[in-house]
Amino acid sequence: METPGIIVKWGTELRVIKDIYDDTTIAELKARIYEETGVKPERQKLLNLRTI
């Protein structure tokens, strides 16, 4: 069984953020994106989210 997650575009790269569930808050999601990319949550834009 695959772990639920999302694909995040950062610059020209696509990154997979795993362990994102229906009950994950936006703040938690942005914190996970920050861990992967180093982009602070207040600088992030969440557009066209695709699930995997």
From TrEMBL:
Chain ranges of the Ubiquitin-like domain: 19-47
TM stretches of this protein: none
InterPro entries: Ubiquitin-like_dom, Ubiquitin-like_domsf
Pfam families named among the record's database cross-references: ubiquitin (PF00240)
Protein name (database record): Ubiquitin-like domain-containing protein
Organism: Bracon brevicornis
